[in-house]
Every structure is written in C-alpha cells, then in structure tokens.
Amino acid sequence: MDASDWITGVCCSVIASLVGAASTLTIRKSWLMEEVSEQPSSYQALNLEDIHPHEEYIETNFEEGSIHGDNSNGSPLVEIECGDDEGQGRCLGCPQSHTDSPVQGDNTIPLLGEFPPSCCCCAASILGCCHCCTLARILRFTGMLGISLLCPPLVLVAMEYATPSILAPFSGLNLVWVIVFSKSLVGEEPSFAQKVASTLIVTGEVTVAIFGDHNNEGDATRASVEASYREGPFIAYFLSSAVYVALITLWIRSPTTIRSLRRFAWGTSGGAISGMAQCFVKDSLIVVSTFKKGPSISIPWYLPLFILLAIGLSLGGLLLNTATMKRYDATFSQAVSVGSYVVSTSLMSAAHYHTFEHLDSIANLVMYPIGLFILMLGVAILVQGSGSSNPSWAYSEDVDDPNHELLREGADLAIAEVNELFVYGEHPTIETDDQ
Fold first, then answer.
1. In the predicted structure, residue 432 carries a pLDDT above the cut 60
2. Which of 42, 79, 345, 346 is most buried by a 10 A CB count?
3. Cβ contact 387:332 at 8 Å
4. What are the sequence ranges of the domains in the chain?
5. Would you indicate the residue range of the signal peptide (predicted)?
C-alpha cells in the first residue's frame, strides 16, 4: 500500500471517532433536555430566616400559623410560572428565554437547586405546549443510530487501509473529542481528575493496541472455531462473565449499594457486555469466509445463533451505555465504558484466541499487562471521583439511589403544595406542636 492508502485509513479512523463522540454527546444532551423538561412548573427558594430550627412550620411576618401570598417580608419566595394564558392554549413561561435566579446567600435554601431551569417546563403543562421531550427522544435515537450504524463501517474501512499498529494512537480519539467538546455542546466541563483519568485510559488503550496480539486468525477454520468453544478457558470466561453481569445487576438494583459501587456497575455494564459480543462477530466472519472455498459448503446451525448473539449483546451494551449517560456525565460514561470494553475484549481474546501465546517478544509480554493496568487505574480514578458535573437542578447522578428519589419526591411535593397555596390564594392554618 502506498502513502495515500495509509492516509485514507487514518482519516476513516478519525471520522469514526468524531461520529462516535458526536453520538455520545447527543445522547447525553437528550437526557439533560428531558430531565429539565420534567421539572415542576415553578421554582421556589425559601429564606432560612423563615425556618426556625425547633419548629415544624413556616412563619411569615403576618399572623402566626398562617401562610399568605403577599411577599412583603423580603424575598422568601421566588416563582416562575408556566401555565395556560387564560385558556388560549399557550404557556406564558414556555419556553423561557431567560429567568433571573434568586440571590443565593447563607440564609437561602433552594428547594430544587441553585438555579431554575432556563428552558421550558412542559411536564407541568396540561396542554403540552412544549416539545422538549419529543426533541430529546429524537436526539437520543439519532445518537444511537450514529453509534450502531455509522461507526462500524468506518472502522472496517479503516482496517482495510491501515494496520492496527498504525490505527492504535487514534483508538482513544473518541474519548478525547468528548472531553474537548463536552463543555461547549453539553454544558458539562470535565474536572481535572476526569481529564487525568481519561488520559490514563487512552494511554492504556494505546499500549494494549500496540503491544497486544496482532494475529488476524487468518488460518482459522470452521473446525478450529467449533473446537474453541469446547475449551476450558473459554467456558470459564463466559461463566465468569455471566456471574459478573449478575453481580453488577445486583449492585445497580440493590438500594443498599454504596454510591461508588453503583457508579462502577453502571459505567462498566455496557462495555463488559459489548466486549462479550466480539468473539461472535469474529467467529461469524471466519465461518462466512469458508464459503468462498467451495459452493457446496453448507451453513452450520450455529451461524445464525452467532449472528443473533453478536447483534443482541452489542445492542444490549448500547442500551446500557445510553442508560448510563442518563445518570452520569459524558466524560465519565464514555471513559469507563471504553475501559471496561477493552478489558472484557482482552480477557476474551486471551481465553478464546490465546493472545499471550502470540506475544513473541519480552516487550510485548511486559507492556501488554502494563497497558491493562494503566487503563484500569484510570477507571478506578473515575469511579472514586464525581460521576456528574451537572447543575444541581438536574437529577442525573445516582437517580436510582432511594435516598435521592425520596428527596426528589419530597421536594416536588413541597413545591406543588406551596405553589398551590400562593398561586390560588388559599390560606390554610398549619398545625404546630406548640398549639
């Protein structure tokens, strides 16, 4: 191949990384849009001076034990309304171009977060005047199509024109693009720890690609594929993978799971399952290639099963990655997913394709495990650090945490009740222990 062929392969790899990063950020953006659109129609901030530490009621400067709608005691309440304009079928505050946030001081508690959402609140609109949720779903579907349909052909074309050792430095570009464009496109700025961890993951990924097994299994036959599924190490890999999937499912579902462990389970779930699919993809291609040797060769019964497993596991990994991006920022989701994918694929290759037997030099035998260690170190830093850099009004981190869910439900209920009292002018008396 001449120089132009290498350039073609590199360009395809760069384009694939851009498509993957754009799809990842699009999915994350769709979840953030949907989260904001589901917020209640009002934002209230209560003054700490109105909340007495030993009394279970809110007292204003009017008569004791009552709540009035007049806001003459300072600024205990700030409202941003989104409702029907006298039955005309449109929202007054939807979409909201700009809303001034209340001044947050030492004596102010926001019920929902530091600042009110600056977009529409269509979840509270009875007439459905906004289309935030519809647009969010369209964006999410577009991102999933980009990852599942556009990236694989570009990667295959790149492999046709360039060797893995040439493409290795570009394998981590997806994560680099996510870090570079996360703030401008999604509004989430990666922290310093996330940047360091992502750098370690990319370094480990490139090290594994350079010093790993470059054997393409060109001499593999249908008989060797069938025999490989009866080998003990490969059976042990699949059994251990099944146990791991069951374990992370338990960590995700259990209400007693600690925060960092749940974050680890969500982040690694998609990559681990996608890594399991690679053996079925590779073996399906090997079996299909045997058809070229003679037209009389019949289709084995397990080929459709391999194809279904490859599609099912890849789709399952994509859905889990999408669900992870609902809960955590794009940098964390992409970095941990890439790390778990590389580890899962490396373990599968070692058990199924005998990777370590194909490592000829001492440098390969030393640097390949070191690359995996560096990669896992980056994943560990991300898991221990913050998994989300969202504004506090976006309920995106640990949304499965029962304490988080109770806090959200309690805040939404309190806001709905206070909003009803002040908007409709009702003045019920609140019982206290002193009465």
1. no
2. 42
3. yes
4. 3-36+134-384
5. none
